[in-house]
Model the fold of this input.
Amino acid sequence: MSSSNIIVLCAFVFYMALMIVIGAIYSRSTKNNEDYFLGGRNLGAWTAAISAEASDMSGWLLMGLPGAFYLTGTGDIWVAVGLLIGTVLNWFFVSGRLRKYTIASGNSLTIPSFFDNRFKSKGVLKVVSAVIITIFFAVYTASAFSSGAKLFATLFGGESAESFSQFYLIGLIIAAAVILVYTFLGGFKAVCTTDLIQGMMMIIAILTVPIIAYSTLTFDTSFSAALAARGVDDPGIFMNPFGSATVQSVISGFAWGLGYFGMPHILVRFMAIKSHKEIKKSRKVAITWVTLAFIASFLIGIVGRAYLTTQLDGTNSETVFIRMIQQVFADNGFLIFIGGIFLCGILAAIMSTADSQLLVTASAISEDMYKGVIKKNASEKSSLRIGRIAVVVIAVVAFVIALDPNSSIMNLVSDAWAGFGAAFGPVVLLALFWKRSNWQGALAAMISGTLTVIVWDYIPMISTADGLVTIGSATGLYSLAIGFPIALIFMVAVSLVSKKPDEEIIKEFEYVKNEEF
Done:
C-alpha cells in the first residue's frame, strides 16, 4: 500500500472509531423503545434539521447524482429541482402537523404505529406498512453499503477489475460492520448525533472540492474549452438543462419530490423534534443545507467532467467525486491527509443514511410486528432486544443485495425511493389533511402504490428488439410519477365508498388541526 493510501486510511480509521465511540456513549442512556427509536422526542433544531437531511442524502448525493450529471450534463438537473421542491413542501406542510398528530394519536413511535393509531385499523395498517418498510429499506440500505464499498475499492483497489472486486468486498464488510455497531449500540440519539457531525462534514466537502477544481481548471482557459478537451462534443448542449432532457425526464425529475412525503427515515425526525418552535428553526436550517447540497452535487458532476484527466463511463462515473479529491489533494502528505478528511465526507453521507434506515426498519419489526401483533404484552427489554436483532438481520440482507460491484447506486436508491413515495406518500398527506380518509382507503393506497412500482420497475412485459423489458425501461418514465397518483386515487375512491370514520377519529383530527402543542 502506498504512503498516500496509508495517510487516507488513517483518516478513515479515526473517523469510524469516533462514530463507534458515540454509539457506545449513547448506549448508556438508552433504556426503552422511545429512547432507542425516537430519542425521547427531544431533538433540538439543528440536530433535527441536519439529521433529517443527512439521513436523506446518502452516497447517491455524492456519488450517484454527480455520476448522472457527469455523463449527461445539466439535463439531469430536474431530479435535483424536484427533490428541492419536495424538501421545502415537506418541512412546511408535513413536519409540524405530523409531530402533533403522532403525539395526540397514541404517542406513536413509528410511522406504521401512526397509521394504525390514526385510522384505528386494529393492526392491519401496522403490519402491512411494516412489511413494506422491511422490503424497500433492505434495498435502500444496500445502496449505502454499495457506496461505501465503491469508495474503498476506488481508493485502494487499483485499476484492474479483479483488484477492484476484491477491495469492493473488503470495503462492503467494513462499511456494514461499522454502521451496524454504532446503530446497534446507541439507537436514535447516536444516529442523530453522528448525522449532525456527518452532515456538517458533507456540506464542507462537497462545496470546497468543486470550487477548488473549477478555480484551478479555469485559471488559463474557459470552462467550455476544458469540456471540449475532455471529449464533450457540444459543451453548449451539455450545459443546457433542456439540451438532453425529454418530457419524460422532466416529469420524472419533478416526481422525485413526491417521494419525500413517504420517507420513514425522514418523517421520523419530524416526530422526534421537541417542540413546534424548534420545527420553525429546523426548517430554515434544513432548506438552506439541502439547497447548498444540491448545488454542490451538480457542480461535482459538471466540473468533474472537465477537470478529471481520467475519463469515466458507466457506473464508474459514480466515483467522480472520489477521483476529484484524489486529483485536487495529491501534492504532499499534508494535502493528502486533508483529502482523506474530505473523503470521510463521502463516508459520512453513506453512514448517515444507512444507520437511519436500519433503525427505522428495526423499529417496524420490533415495535409494530413483534410488540404490536405477535406478542402484545412484550416487555420493553424483550422488544428492544428484538429491535437490535432486526438491525443485524436487515444489515445482512442489505449486504447480500450489495454484493455485485457493478450495481448502480442511483438505480438502487431510485427503486426504494419510488416504493416508499408511492406506498406511503398519499397516506401521510391524506391522514394529516383529509378527515374523511379511513383505514380501508389507506390500505388500498399502500397496496396499489407498492404493486405499481413493482410491476413498473421489475416485471419485463414490453416486447422490444432487445427482448422483453419493463414498462419503466420502455417508457423512460419514473415509476413514482405513476405510482403516487394511482395510490392517491385509490385512497380517495375507497375512502369515499367505504364507511365514514368514527366520531372519535374525527374529534382527534379536529383537535390536532386546531391545537398548538
Observations:
- Strands lie at 462-464, 467-469.
- The CA atoms of residues 84 and 291 lie 7 Å apart.
- The chain has a mean pLDDT of 85.
- Residues 3-514 form a domain with the Sodium/glucose cotransporter fold (CATH 1.20.1730.10).
